[in-house]
Amino acid sequence: MKPFDIQECLNDIYACYPEAEHRPLIGLTGNFVDGDTRLCHRYYLSVIEAGGVPVIIPPVDDKHTIINTLDQIDGLVLTGGGDFNPLWAGEEPSPRLHGINATRDKAELLTARLAYNRQVPMLGICRGIQTLVMALDGEVDQDILEAMQRHPDRYRGKQPLIKHSQDADRREPTHTVTVEKGSVLHEILGAETVAVNSLHHQAVRKAGKRFKVSAMSPDGVIEAVESSEYKPIIGVQWHPEWLKEAGAPLFGWLVKQARNFSVAKELHRRIITLDTHCDTPMFFPQGIHFDHRDPQILVDMHKMEEGRQSAVIMVAYLPQPKLGETFSSKVQVPVDSPKAYADHVFNEIERIVERNAKYISIARTPAELYEDKRKGRRSIMLGIENGLALNHQLSNVRYFAQRGVVYITLCHNGDNDICDSAKGCATHHGVSSFGQQVIQEMNRQGIMVDLSHAAESSFYDALSISTTPIVCSHSCCKALCDVPRNLSDEQLKALAQRGGVAQITLYPGFLRKGASEADIMDVMAHLEHAIQVMGIEHVGLGTDFDGDGGVRGLANSSEMLNFTLQLLRRKYSERDIARIWGGNWLRVMAQVQMCKQEK
């Protein structure tokens, strides 16, 4: 090739198609020195060597710049640099505090927190591990030596054994760290003891609930943290970009996670991602703001956007009064009947949608869901949890069908006039005579029959009565967690044989018996068991968010992308992921609604 010949360079590029392979885009936070944004060459070269495409993110705290950047990148490196202003942690400055970098602080703390909300894979390096921890509710010591002197118990009662801020060349390892067995970091590095370079005097004091410690130095200083929520986030106190082959695995890990994230984002762009059960309307009387990122609720417009979630079925949940109780005493809204309460909930949903019509819509059919998707809107569908809402009047089935209700959960935690509950007293020994009429009318009106919460006797009765497939909008597998609300393998098989679907839910007590906490791996275990028993055409996800649903790794709608990442890691095809994420449910919905048209 002739030197300085641009045409020959272009010919080499144009000689094949495509001109370059697709690679994930990795953002790197830029340092700010003497009025300039700078980045050490080893950072971006390490990203290129790992198979990523580096872009420098300037240290600006403008929300439009940060959010649009995060929407474009597939991974994020939080780079090293100066100290944080301790006021961000609610602390006064220590005499040993070094130079702070005010230009970076706010910009990077916002970037890290917003990237966390969006499930962006992150690698924090030196200052970057401190950025992660400060942004996500952990604590950082302003100076290691001072902290050791003040709190020797925290550092195993030892005097400092090593100098953490070394004068050696950055390519030179200067001390070792011990890596926790079983950690992601241990899997990446393949060793329990690793030699690292050390160029810091601040360090993580407490990792916080979102992280777990994955490496420590001999004197008890935290040298690495990783997500405790199965998210692709790691922070290290050393500088792997200078360690060549020893540092490359961390950048390789980030690029791999970024590639998976890019695939998941693209999947969510193409397919319907539907959560078939949430109880968010229960919080309406508490003055929630659905168009804010409201900490009171697990589903709102911000979280749906962050999790790239297409649609959710919001239910009017009606608590079942016990003998001697009135319905009005069970709800916070002054209404004269269960039907009026359901109407109140749907009216409020309609008001929310009307105020945000550019971004969200009420959908009543699969076709309307796909139309919203095409127009870039998110969708809410309407459901009823507890047939008590019918007020023992068959005509109200048609009324709610006309309001757009897509399913009715026949009962809740207690027998009602339709059927016995899994937590009931066998009042009817299954479905009542009125319940039989209700199911038949739901078939005629194109409303899906939902048997979550139903007793096993009610389940089999309804299955024999209904002429259309049955759904269970939020249930788990009894074989893995033996509680009355879960479905036995025999029920799962019967449901599948009739063309129905079972939507795995996120209530910890249905995932682990007697547990107050569960995680995304429990969800995947129940999903895969249901697939094994029923076939992949009969499963989905109904979170029960805001109805006590939510687990570590799938805690709210912003984390829905993590479910897709888990499916991708298990090598499910795009077709099967689309089925799980809503295709199976929408097949049943279309079949049920088609029967109404035929009648």
General description of the model:
It is a single chain. With 599 residues, the chain is α/β, with parallel strands linked by helices. It has 19 helices and 22 strands. Strands 4-1-5-6-13-12-11-8-9 form a nine-stranded mixed β-sheet, with helices on both faces. Strands 14, 15, 16, 17, 18, 19, 20, 21 and 22 form a nine-stranded parallel β-sheet that branches. The longest helix has 25 residues, at 574-598. The radius of gyration is 27 Å and the shape is elongated. The model has no long low-confidence stretch (mean pLDDT 94).
SSE layout and pairing:
Layout: H1 6-14, E1 25-29, E2 31-33, E3 36-38, H2 41-49, E4 53-57, H3 63-72, E5 75-78, H4 102-117, E6 122-125, H5 127-135, E7 139-141, H6 144-150, E8 175-179, H7 184-189, E9 193-196, E10 203-206, E11 211-216, E12 222-227, E13 233-236, H8 248-270, E14 274-278, H9 301-306, E15 311-317, H10 338-355, E16 360-362, H11 366-374, E17 378-385, H12 395-403, E18 405-409, H13 433-445, E19 448-450, H14 456-465, E20 470-475, H15 489-497, E21 501-504, H16 508-511, H17 520-534, E22 539-541, H18 560-569, H19 574-598
Parallel strand pairs: 1-4, 1-5, 5-6, 6-13, 14-15, 15-17, 16-17, 17-18, 18-19, 19-20, 20-21, 21-22
Antiparallel strand pairs: 2-3, 7-10, 8-9, 8-11, 11-12, 12-13
Helix pairs in contact: 3-4, 4-5, 8-18
